[in-house]
Amino acid sequence: MAASEPADKTNFSSVKTALRVIEIMEIYAREGRSLTLTELAKLLGAPMSSCLGLIRTLTALGYLYETGRRQGYYPTSRLLNIAQRISRNDPLLERVTPVLEALRDATGETAIFGKLQDDGRVLYLEVRESPNPVRYTAAPGELREAHANSIGRAILGVMSGSAREQALERLSFSEHTEKTITNKAAFEDELERSRANGWYSNFGESFPDLGAIAMPVAIGDVTYGISVAGPVNRVEGNKAQIVDALRLGQRTLQS
Q1: Most buried of the four, 82, 183, 220, 250, by CB within 10 Å?
Q2: What's residue 1's pLDDT?
Q3: pLDDT at 14
């Protein structure tokens, strides 16, 4: 037992360091400016000594550079270049992106492709935002609770048997607005109604003014979801057009 403790501590330390690096990049994305070591340590909630080690390593690897003596650090474009190369080589997104762009152009709203995770949340894998000044804004990598998300409902709606039961048990059913369904029985009833219609909605349940319609998409042996989202009055008002566009996207991706 004692022999495994050093290894366990090393693994924990490595995971924590990796999370810190991601948090640093997210801080820069949020702040949008050069940051001093003191500012970074404060925003990271980490000791100055730990933050200094991370900054020195990231600088040595070419991910950060010093903007001026004692003026702070800022990311280089190295991370962006790596991310772009990864994205360009993703065979799934290469197939999905044209469909999302067609959905966006046909409906005038934001089009999203996502997957349900084991923790009961939906992960957005790709997004094509509406050009409309008033629109739903989202980005790949964002997470949403499945019970109040149209993609989550679309994927859960086509599950059956024990898989569906286990997935429902992982949902939080937390309340986001006064319209959010917060109990399992009512949620299952909503899934059955939506399954009969062939499409799944979220009208003001995650955010008061947000509307979204989604459909499941089976690619290989995995079920994903595509959705169209925007101001609830526009999405509800153009429901028939959006459903038709989603059906076309669904057929294209499943063919």
Answers
A1: 250
A2: 45
A3: 73
